[in-house]
Design goal:
The complex is a heterodimer. Chain A has one domain: OB fold (Dihydrolipoamide Acetyltransferase, E2P) (Beta Barrel). In chain A, about 5% of the residues lie in helices and about 45% in strands. Chain A is built from two helices and eleven strands. In chain A, the strands form two sheets. Chain A has a six-stranded mixed sheet, with no helix packed on it. Chain A has a five-stranded mixed sheet with strand order 3-6-7-5-4. Chain B is an alpha+beta fold. Chain B has five domains: about 130 residues, Up-down Bundle (Four Helix Bundle (Hemerythrin (Met), subunit A)); about 190 residues, no CATH class; about 55 residues; about 170 residues, Heat Shock Protein 90 (2-Layer Sandwich), CATH 3.30.565.10; about 140 residues, OB fold (Dihydrolipoamide Acetyltransferase, E2P) (Beta Barrel). Chain B has a six-stranded mixed sheet with strand order 14-18-19-17-16-15. Classes of the chains: A mainly beta, B alpha+beta. Chains A and B meet through strand 4, strand 5 and strand 7 of A and helix 17, strand 21 and strand 22 of B.
Chain lengths: ~170, ~750
């Protein structure tokens, strides 16, 4: 899946201030993550299950010779229909020299947002720990949950890294 | 000028380690009675390089040790001092100390300052013992240029850094020695340095050299003839050269006496050295030549015709004429010294980080999988219609294979890298044990993976020490047994069906079957007289097992052989022993060619495929109806040929869904690790292949019971079982149950 830059029209005068985000959906909710953390987007393929791993870790795949673990965020956050179709999408993230794939319902687009557009999130309880939410972005009429994906994925509760190195 | 030197440290560490290794090799292979001149020079150069670069980087402890070592080696190679085994021992010791210091700088070890001082003193003592004989030794004119040309006097005041580290002056002397012949190098009480040099170079050349160590503005270089004439004739200090007349006077009064006598001694007593000191003259055009003592002859002449520049070349010619007659051998030796300079320029290898190579290997691995996928997809096509595509695919396959081979070969190093350290081990240990042992190495060119090279070295060292201590008998026993007093240890490496085989053989007494059996019973091991020889020999790999009557410095504590076996097993290899009483013992180590590839058996459990490392698999069988035995109502043991083995069901262990639960429909794979056997229950055996090991931890975490992952031909990931952990697991479960 190719994400063309034409998908987003960016006003040049705002370019320096704007940060680009990749948005994806989990059920009815829309999330945004820093696009610089995204390595690529691919379809969901067969995974090799790993024994005794948490339910949301689907297993590992072969990404051009690298063994990459796959996390299903829908299971982790308990939202959306957990089913795997030819349209299920995996976002491959590159975080702190680690490569991790996350399964989401769909990838929407790439959006540029200025810091003013991102409001601090009010205190509320959610499956996504409040500390991983950078804020709530508003673009047109949509509310985007801006997630610090790196902190989220490397958090001990994701069980993606050994405790010793966490 | 503040350059961050630390970025070059790694280069220094690597180079120093290489130099140390070559020093050791040269020392060990050196024939004490007839040392090869080229080897001596190589030794000196290596020590000199370490000294130079360690000084540059500020590792002064290393500089100090190498400085003394260099001085000693310099004397040896100039034949001022005969080579003795004492010198070799001292230099070997110094090499060890340097290695320790190097490791300390790399942060791997604690620097042993006491050892450094001790070895420096030992070397110093050796230097001094000899310098008394040679009188006033020449002032280190390494690679000097022939006599001839003009004489210059250089006076300067060393700068602060130079005053703190006196060895920089020696370096300077050497540096000047390349430009011309340093005839005098004095340090005066007031700190001034006074140098007399004869050279064909222009005056400015010396200024450039001396400027590095001198306080700015303190350098004075002048043509000597006039200066001395002035000083001598009119007793008037020349402008800017305070005290010139004093030194000039001293020069003629004291030094010639000493030098003349020294030179006379040599002329009369030692033909060889006489020839040698004059040898540089014929090699007038080579500036790599070693011309230590040529100055003697000139000094002697200088007395008769004080400071007459015209007379000097004549003297040189005379000396050279003599030398050509007296020492043709030495001149030939001088001629041989040219190649090293040429070789230095022809270095065709480059340093590349292992990371880059591994990255390339990974990419090629990917290419192989892609190529396999393409070939698979093309199979359904009509070969007539797609002839060109098919031809292209065949070519692609061939090219990929070639590419893979050549890329893998980058990581391969000849095993001589490991073998080269054993002559030293054999030398040291056999000396300690009072045995005479010769080491033969065969197949040093055999290549294996760099990762393995690093890890095989310790186990091999241990096997060799073991052979030396337990295998080879003492000279008396050997004579009594009708063997040559000199024992032989043979190291042999070769490739055999995708494995590298390394044999450590000795022609010693062989293993004593009865002794091993009785020791084994003593230790409560399961040993019976009906065991085959091979099984008995394997007993020596049991932890704490030793048949040595005495615990020696070398071995006998029973620590080690089990570690050897474990280390080799962790590399995916194994050790076999052949032995015959009175004839010898041979330990054969078999290793996979590379750490990255493993022979595996693939098994299916439910929809999953797992790889079991083949070297842990003893056998696989289909359980019969009466083989399963239950303990407290649960089937947990299987009886295989009289043995009760704990059963681990992979389905339960990994929680695989949809796997076979009926014992009779599945397969039992018997695994053995660390002497314990278990039966692993799986659905089916799929096949046997070589798999490329991929790290699971790079992007994920460690998983209990899994040692890694691999990519199968269809591009899917299969997990590799950690057989040793599974076996250990069963032990834990049983312990809890008991």
């Amino acid at each position: 899946m190719q994400l063309g830059s034409e998908a987003v029209a960016i006003d040049d005068s705002h370019r320096e201030l704007e940060q680009e985000f990749l948005t994806f959906t989990l059920g009815p909710e829309e999330y945004a993550i820093d696009i610089l953390k995204v390595q690529e987007i691919r379809g969901y393929d067969t995974v090799t299950a790993i024994a005794n791993a948490p339910k949301f870790i689907k297993g590992v795949i072969n990404l051009r010779g690298t063994i990459v673990p796959i996390v299903d965020l829908r299971i982790k956050f308990g939202i959306g229909n957990v089913e795997y179709t030819p349209f299920t999408v995996v976002i491959i993230l590159n975080l702190a020299e680690r490569v991790v794939g996350v399964v989401v319902d769909s990838v929407s687009d790439v959006i540029g947002m200025t810091p003013e557009q991102i409001r601090p999130a009010p205190n509320f309880s959610s499956q996504v720990g409040a500390s991983f939410i950078r804020g709530l972005g508003t673009v047109d009429e949509r509310m985007l949950i801006v997630v610090d994906i790196e902190r989220l994925m490397l958090a001990p509760e994701m069980a993606l890294i050994d405790e010793a190195t966490a | 000028m503040a350059i961050d030197m630390s970025q070059f440290y790694q280069v220094f560490f690597e180079e120093a380690a290489e130099h140390l290794a070559s020093i050791e090799n040269l020392l060990v292979s050196m024939d004490v009675d007839a040392p090869d001149a080229e080897d001596l020079n190589a030794l000196f150069r290596a020590a000199h390089s370490i000294k130079g670069s360690s000084g540059t980087f500020g590792f002064n402890d290393m500089t100090e040790v190498t400085h003394v070592m260099e001085t000693l080696l310099d004397m040896v190679r100039k034949h001022e001092k005969p080579l003795t085994s004492d010198i070799i021992d001292a230099c070997l010791e110094a090499g060890d100390v340097l290695r320790n210091l190097l490791a300390a700088h790399m942060g791997e070890d604690q620097a042993d300052a006491a050892a450094a001082t001790a070895v420096s003193q030992r070397l110093q003592a050796l230097c001094e013992a000899e310098s008394a004989d040679t009188g006033c030794a020449s002032t280190g004119t390494e690679g000097s240029v022939p006599a001839g040309g003009n004489r210059f006097r250089i006076r300067f005041r060393p700068d602060a850094a130079c005053r703190q580290r006196p060895e920089t002056l020696d370096n300077l002397a050497e540096e000047l020695g390349r430009l011309g012949q340093v005839q005098r190098f004095d340090r005066e009480d007031d700190g001034l340095c006074d140098i007399v040099i004869e050279s064909t170079h222009a005056l400015s050349a010396f200024e450039g050299v001396v400027d590095f160590v001198a306080e700015s503005g303190s350098v004075v270089v002048m043509p000597l003839a006039e200066a001395e004439e002035d000083a001598y004739g009119f007793f008037e200090p020349a402008d800017g050269v305070s005290g010139a007349e004093e030194t000039a006077y001293g020069f003629f009064n004291d030094e010639p006496v000493a030098t003349v006598s020294a030179a006379d001694d040599e002329v009369v007593s030692e033909d060889g050295s006489y020839g040698f000191f004059a040898a540089p003259a014929p090699a007038a055009t080579s500036d790599d030549d070693e011309a230590p003592d040529g100055s003697y002859g000139l000094f002697a002449k200088a007395v008769t015709s004080p400071v007459a520049p015209a007379a000097v070349p004549a003297a040189a010619i005379e000396a050279s004429a003599k030398s050509e007659r007296a020492a043709p051998v030495k001149t030939a030796g001088a001629a041989q010294k040219k190649p090293p300079t040429a070789r230095a320029g022809g270095d065709t290898s480059i340093r590349v980080s292992v990371e880059k190579v591994d990255q390339m290997i990974n990419l090629v691995g990917e290419l192989v999988i892609t190529q396999a996928m393409l070939t698979q997809s093309a199979e359904g096509l009509d070969p007539v219609l797609y002839e060109r595509l098919m031809n292209g695919l065949v070519q692609l396959e061939r090219n990929t294979r070639d590419l893979q081979e050549s890329v893998m070969s980058i990581r391969m190093l000849p095993i001589s890298v490991v073998f080269s350290r054993f002559p030293r081990v054999v030398r040291d240990v056999s000396k300690k044990l009072g045995k005479q042992v010769e080491l033969k190495t065969i197949g040093e060119g055999t290549e294996l993976d760099k990762g393995l090279i690093e890890r095989i070295s310790d186990p091999l060292t241990h096997l060799i020490r073991n052979s030396l201590d337990h295998g080879i008998e003492s000279p008396e026993k050997r004579r009594a047994a009708g063997k040559s007093e000199i024992g032989t240890i043979t190291l042999k490496a070769y490739h055999q069906s995708g494995n590298i085989v390394i044999e450590v053989g000795d022609d010693g007494a062989g293993l004593n079957r009865d002794k091993i059996l009785s020791k084994a019973r003593e230790r409560g091991l399961d040993a019976s007289d009906t065991m085959s020889d091979a099984e008995v020999w394997q007993l020596i790999f049991e932890p704490g097992f030793s048949t040595a009557d005495q615990v020696t410095d070398v071995s006998g504590r029973g620590v080690g052989m089990d570690v050897v076996k474990r280390n080799i097993a962790s590399m995916g290899g194994r050790v076999d022993i052949d032995s015959m009483g009175g004839v010898g013992t041979r330990m054969t180590v078999r290793l996979p060619l590379t750490l990255a590839i493993l022979d595996g058996m693939s098994v299916g459990v439910g929809a999953e495929t797992y790889i079991i490392p083949l070297n842990y698999v003893v056998e696989s069988l289909q359980p019969g109806p009466n083989m399963m035995r239950s303990v407290s109502g649960v089937d947990s043991l299987i009886q295989v040929r009289g043995e009760y083995l704990p059963v681990i069901s992979l389905r339960e262990y990994f929680g695989v869904e949809g796997a076979c639960t009926d014992w009779r429909k599945g397969i039992m794979v018997i695994l053995e690790a660390d002497g314990t056997k278990i039966a692993l229950f799986v659905d089916q055996l799929i096949g046997q292949h070589q798999v490329v090991i991929k790290s699971l931890e790079a992007n994920y975490r460690r998983v209990a019971g899994i040692s890694g992952a691999t990519i199968m031909g269809d591009g899917r990931v299969a997990l590799i079982l950690d057989a040793a952990a599974l076996v250990g697991q069963s032990r834990k479960v049983l312990a809890v149950a008991a």
